[in-house]
Design goal:
Length: 230
Amino acid sequence: MRGWTNLSISNSYSPVHQPLLAAERARICDYGRRMADDRLVVGSSGNISIRSGDLVAVTPTGIEYADLTPDLISVIGLDGRHLDGAPPTSEVPLHLALYNSRPIGAVVHTHAVHATAASMLVDQLPPVHYMLALFGGAVRVAPYATFGTAELAASVLGALGDRFGCLLANHGAVTVGANLPAAYDRAVQLEWLCQVWLAARTAGQPRHLPPGELARTTELMRGYGAAGRE
């Protein structure tokens, strides 16, 4: 969900700052429309960000993805200062917590149907398929906290750890990567994995991978697929 919360705003930027992160802002527009087309979000929900040095380009609050233009994409500092574009998503605390905790280049937050449904049922996505290896191991569920809060940011950091994706209880999913293509690929894969598990669960008790297999496939997958493009 996107809205405005607890950030200091600076409208005193110089005209030379107008093209801040121009390429990153255009890329967010492209992936935002793709995210809507792939049904990973509804309306203006969810958000995307890209880090470049000490700056972050991030989707704005309350604007439909079809209506996004590069000048509307918000640019903020790692300290939360608003430098350019429209007011940013309410989930800025989450994005900044992730960027300040580990060396990643992009964050994708979705409200996809199957990921959200799965987040209501378990504390960890069961190891039903080897593609979980793309996330560096088991995908955990972050305990529920109100959107846009420091509590939610802390919950996600705890669930994510050194992995590349987690579910947010009764909320959605977050995936990260060295770049936006990698983070987005993981968002798509996580939604597919949740859909597969939920489909199997409606028919019976899904079988899990053999003990140790997820750890083995995680090692085998390093260096190709989404991880390989990082």
